[in-house]
Amino acid sequence: MKILEDKLDKFDQNILETTTKSFLASELSNITVSFATLNDTVDGLRSDNLTSEHLTLKNKHLFRECRNRAKSHDYKFVWVKRGVILTRKTENSPVLAIRLEQDLNKIK
């Protein structure tokens, strides 16, 4: 009887391990995260990865306009952090927050 119980315990354990592994593999395959490599520093912290953020349609247009204006004024960095568009001319210059169309006038 003891041998039969041991075999059933091993069988149950194998089923549990197999089910857990397949469940985890299935769940992990559904996770998608976009990463982009950066070679710059932001606020003194090295940032190797950047997760993509979702922006409202208004902020997408504002971000595009900010990138275009920053490019024409030789700004080096434009990025989004927690839904706020940020820009910086050089590594040592102050960070400008762009929240409204009027804030684009800060880029000179």
TrEMBL record:
<protein>
    <submittedName>
        <fullName>(apollo) hypothetical protein</fullName>
    </submittedName>
</protein>
<feature type="domain" description="FP protein C-terminal">
    <location>
        <begin position="56"/>
        <end position="108"/>
    </location>
</feature>
<dbReference type="InterPro" id="IPR057251">
    <property type="entry name" value="FP_C"/>
</dbReference>
<dbReference type="Pfam" id="PF25298">
    <property type="entry name" value="Baculo_FP_2nd"/>
</dbReference>
